[in-house]
Amino acid sequence: MSSTEQGTSSAAPAEPTTAPESAAAPEVPESFYYVHGKDKVVHKVSAGALQHSALIHGMISNLGYTEEQAKANPFPFENIDGDILQMVVDWCNQHKGKPTPPEDTNLPKQKEKLFDLVLAVNYLEIKELLTYCCKQVAMMVKGKSPEEIREIWMIPTDAEDEAAEKEAKKRAGKEAAGETAAAAGDAK
Amino acid sequence: MPIRLLSLSGEDLQYVINSMVLSDLIAFSLCSKRTKALAKSSNHKIDPMSAYVYLNFIIFEIRPSEQERQRSPRLSLLFSIYSGSRITLTRAGENGSEVWRRPEFTQSDWIPHFMSIFNESVIQELNIVEVEESYLDTVKRIIPKFNKLEIGIACFDDAARIAFLKLSPIAVEHVEVQKNIFNNATDTTKFLTLNLKSVTFQDPRYPFKLTVDDLLILNITDLTIDEANITGRELNQFLKLWMKGNHKFYRPKSIRLALEDEEIQLNRQEVLKGIQYEFVEEHDHFQFRIRRGDGKELMVHKEENSIVFNFS
Predict the structure, then answer these.
(1) Does the structure's ipTM exceed the value 0.90?
(2) Domain boundaries, chain B
(3) Could you read off the pLDDT of B51-68 as tens digits, one per residue?
(4) Which fold has domain A3-148?
(5) Is B32 on the interface with A (CB under 8 A)?
(6) Contacts of A155 in chain B (CB under 8 A)
(7) Segment A23-32 long-range contacts (CB within 8 Å, at least 24 positions apart)
(8) pTM of the model
(9) Which of A114, A138, A146 comes nearest B31 by C-beta?
(10) Which Pfam families match (chain B) (predicted)?
């Protein structure tokens, strides 16, 4: 379980309201770190749970923060929605120090949430959770026809792809022309 | 609310695609050129593909490979391909079917699409269950290359004959005809003079009438006929003429003729009459060797109810 509290827009996070579950080994006190998403709600997470994220694990491995320093410097993930980060933190806590099961049935069923979760988990580099999420995304189209898949996954038609490609080329051409003109102006 | 799948990073997208079951992957590949390319780059594997012709439509079978069965149902996917831009998918073992459409596709586009996404260059087996003669050119156009051709017992005689003449030259490895197409044929030589690698003519109900000339004009490398109607005297003549044909190119490497067992026993002396031969084995399975002046050898042996000629 994670501990959370609504943060303010200031850099300093608020004190979490509940204590996290302690790690199994009592003789070595577990260290904790703090993360927040777009909504600034700060989550206190143990280093053990954060090991699932290759990104955060890499960030904290050489920091040697004290509890106070960690509290004062939460990791900001402004590109991740608060509820999505909450899901990620919950998952990391639930699977802390445990082997990951072959299937995870606790993932969100709402398509848009699942999609945002994939993006967040990919960013945070949580391989096992990414595996579950991608499987879940694949399940969205189970037994569907090409037309239905196109609709569910918003797949553009060939004509739309071609139009987008043409537009991108046109834009790139304009930008290149603009840069050439600017360079010529500078030279003068 | 739909999600924009293609905006996922390449790695995530690939993982999603690799997590799909086979039928979903095929449906996904039909959404656009881009999804086709993504499906093609997936790690899904299938067993060699087969196609079955029924009168004027084709059923194309895609079976998951052993490795694929860990994530996909084990049963085959059967796509019925009619004229136009629709196909019908039936999952083997399930009731009902689904209609899929790709408006810009014609009948000829479906099979190349399936082959392309699984990186297959040839269809393993084309089975002509029954066919309308007028549909054979379409079959030839839709399925340009296959390893094995099978012409089934349910085909009408004329359709089976035309199917053999039109399609057997395309078969890379083997042709099997399960009905006697020699019956009532005006000219059987056109079947036997085709330059083919391996052919089995099989129709236990109606034995295939063969003559010495048929064996001499033969242009098929490996031929099996089950059952053949030929006398010991004709076989004897054939052996003598082959021996006389010094320095003449003779394409066949193996001819296997299934005969009634008693017939072989009865005619054995007749088959060898007047021929210089060398016994290699003389027990249940007799085997003898014949040499001709140019050094070519012919091994003849009996195998169950068949007499087999192997040319060196």
Answers:
(1) no
(2) 46-274
(3) 999 999 999 999 999 888
(4) Potassium Channel Kv1.1; Chain A (3.30.710)
(5) yes
(6) 5-6, 31-32, 34-35
(7) A23/A48, A23/A96, A23/A97, A24/A97, A31/A65, A31/A67, A31/A70, A32/A67, A32/A70
(8) 0.80
(9) A146
(10) F-box, FBA_2
